[in-house]
Amino acid sequence: MHALKLRGMTAAADLMAAQIAAGVPPGLLAGVTLVPVPGHPRHRRRRGFDQADRIAAALARRAALPVARCLERGSAAPPQAGAGRAQRLRSGGGAISVAGAAPERAVLVDDVHTTGATLDACARALRAAGSHAVVAVSYARTLG
What we know:
Blueprint: H1 2-5, H2 12-23, E1 33-36, H3 41-47, H4 51-63, E2 71-73, H5 85-91, E3 96-98, E4 105-113, H6 117-128, E5 133-141
Parallel strand pairs: 1-4, 4-5
Antiparallel strand pairs: 2-3
């Protein structure tokens, strides 16, 4: 994870996607559209890429699925790194909105599932925009 996020080793996204694909329940990726969880705009600018988008693109190539980059995160969203559980839950994942059409069946793709606040905010935005089914996959999950 750190190789991708902190050292810019974008090829690591392919390995992460392979591990996600190998670990998902049978049928979870059938007939769905992958939707990357948008990173904080400041982090995207600093890194030059969005790690969840890279993982989603690699997973899409592997599973022959479409990707919809329809979620946007407002720049006012507080960064989650270093925040405690209570603070992350209070922020609700920041301001997430849908730009364009939401897919009917969406699989959110994220790098790390911490408290679930961001995934929840993304799922709520997709459902409000018309998605009927929303599930999520992530490369890693934090404990606690």
